[in-house]
Design brief:
Elements lengths: L13 H9 L4 H5 L2 H16 L3 H8 L1 H8 L3 H19 L2 H5 L4 H19 L5 H29 L4 H30 L2 H6 L1 H9 L2 H14 L18 H30 L4 H28 L4 H20 L5 H11 L2 H11 L4 H19 L1 H13 L3 H21 L9
Helix pairs in contact: 3-9, 3-10, 3-12, 4-10, 4-14, 6-9, 6-14, 6-19, 6-20, 8-9, 8-12, 8-13, 9-10, 9-19, 10-15, 10-18, 14-15, 14-18, 14-19, 14-20, 14-21, 15-17, 15-18, 16-17, 16-21, 20-21
Length: about 425
């Protein structure tokens, strides 16, 4: 039986964990009090709200962006693939960063990059500047993706399920609001640029809680003496474990479908006869219905002895949704949206599993970085191949067939991670 997230088995002393990962020997002492812990939690939630808005707002306005910048189908596929490319490349560097720089300081830079990138990409008429500035914005998200599971383990070791559910729900809310409001905002201001650029303000707000935390950790680093004893746990290498690879494949396969849905579902519904606003709302419905799932999934996953029932249930929902979208996209759109929302519960489940399959904060950040960076390499195929198949065939049968194949791979990897074990033990 897997211990619930609150058990936090075999955690090292808080000071050792924080010293190793935050670059600050006094981090635990200063952030565990109620005020410091509350500030960390607020900061995490604000960061989470921003983690997908930049992606789903583009998905809802993809037709307008294609017309405005003159994007071909293949180039649009590249743009919708950018998140996975950025997440894979920058995510792999995050463990190296947090061994040298306090996470609060890293997050300040990450959210600043997200805000600036979103502003710059809406003031250009160049396709390639749009691509490069989108990559800048996404680089901030890539770093935050890896840091959040580690921050949960580091600052809230006895509330892992609750805090993971809270930030996953915040992420889902941000995703939903961006998808639902991008088109109305664009129409209100008369330009797709407003529909994308407005989310830079939310990224700027997310910087604010981390500034005092960054200053605090910097001051603590100055006060640290050269003779301070720092516990350094053995380096965890998930790439050398079967569990690490199974987690990466599952994360990659579910992200492949998730980003394909965020990038192309609104277009599918437009092709089925829905107006742009309605198509954007249907896309938003996937994430809106996912809010309670995101909140409950971490607790449910932590209480189950095996993840097998969740893996199989999520697979069934996704498979039925894909078949429905292929056969009757207009007639039962709300049903397919609901089933997609259930199937996308694989995302909060795998985020929770990262914490459940590691004993320590060091193991968590290593497993998070490997599973996400490697997984996003796999996921990069999703939006790109969907775009290529859509342009080549002029329809959605081939793209949906591809997503069903990816779902089969996801299920196989999910069965491998279902059994309780820890990456440190392999």
């Amino acid at each position: 039986m897997t211990p619930p997230p609150t058990a936090a088995p075999a955690l090292p002393a808080p000071a050792a964990v924080d010293t190793r990962l935050a670059g600050d020997p006094g981090a635990a002492r200063r952030t565990h009090p109620a005020t410091g812990g509350a500030l960390v939690l607020v900061g995490m939630l604000l960061v989470a709200v921003n983690l997908r808005a930049v992606v789903t707002s583009l998905g809802a306005l993809l037709d307008e962006v294609r017309d405005g910048l003159g994007l071909s189908g293949a180039t649009a596929g590249l743009v919708t693939t950018l998140p996975t490319i950025a997440f894979a490349g920058l995510g792999a560097l995050t463990p190296w960063l947090v061994r040298r720089v306090a996470p609060a300081r890293v997050l300040v830079v990450a959210m600043f990059a997200l805000a600036v990138g979103q502003v710059l990409r809406v003031v250009t008429d160049s396709i390639w500047i749009f691509v490069l500035t989108s990559a800048l914005a996404l680089s901030g998200i890539a770093v935050a993706n890896i840091l959040l599971p580690m921050l949960v383990k580091q600052h809230f070791p006895h509330r892992t399920g609750l805090v993971t559910g809270a930030y996953t729900m915040a992420l889902t809310v941000g995703t939903t609001v961006a998808a639902a409001t991008a088109v109305p905002i664009a129409h209100a201001f008369g330009s797709w640029r407003a529909g994308l650029g407005i989310w830079a303000a939310m990224a700027a707000v997310a910087v604010l809680p981390w500034v005092p935390l960054a200053l605090r950790t910097r001051a603590g680093a100055r006060r640290a003496t050269p003779t301070a004893v720092v516990a350094t746990p053995a380096r965890i290498r998930p790439a050398r474990t079967r569990l690490g690879w199974a987690m990466a494949v599952y994360f990659g396969a579910q992200s492949l479908s998730g980003y394909a849905i965020m990038g192309w579902l609104a277009q599918l519904f437009r092709d089925a006869g829905y107006q742009p606003e309605s198509a954007g709302l249907l896309l938003a419905g996937v994430t809106a219905l996912g809010v309670p799932i995101a909140l409950l999934m971490p607790t449910l996953a932590g209480r189950l002895g095996s993840l097998r029932p969740l893996v199989l249930g999520l697979t069934t929902a996704s498979a039925l949704a894909y078949l429905g979208l292929a056969l009757a996209p207009h007639g039962a759109a709300l049903l397919w949206v609901a089933l997609l929302a259930i199937g996308q519960g694989a995302f909060p489940m795998i985020l929770t599993a990262i914490g459940l399959r590691a004993r320590t904060a060091e193991g968590t950040v290593a497993l998070s970085a490997f599973a996400q960076s490697t997984g996003y390499v796999i996921a990069a195929l999703g939006p790109l191949l969907v775009g290529i198949l859509y342009e080549a065939t002029g329809g959605w049968t081939a793209p949906i067939g591809f997503l069903l194949g990816a779902l089969a791979v996801q299920t196989t990897a999910g069965m491998a991670i279902a059994r309780p074990r820890y990456v440190e033990d392999e």
